[in-house]
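Project standup — Tuesday

K.O.: blocked on the structure for the chain from last sprint. Re-posting the sequence here as requested.
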Amino acid sequence: MRITLNLPDGLLEDLTKATGERNKTLLIRTALEERLKKAKRDRLLELRGKLDLDVDLSALRDKDLL
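H.V.: unblocked you, prediction finished:
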């Protein structure tokens, strides 16, 4: 997909210097993928302590999975 972006002056240049990557498409793709991973982690952390999982950890550890 092609898209036009308006980025703050120097942002892409700073990212290029920080990563050493010169390919702009790869820079943007990597930044978006990292941001998506962070959003998913944050959503999981929000669930911490809110899910009641009735799991017997001892039984799971003793279970032969092979």
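K.O.: great, moving the ticket to review. The chain has one domain: 11-62. The chain has a mean pLDDT of 90.
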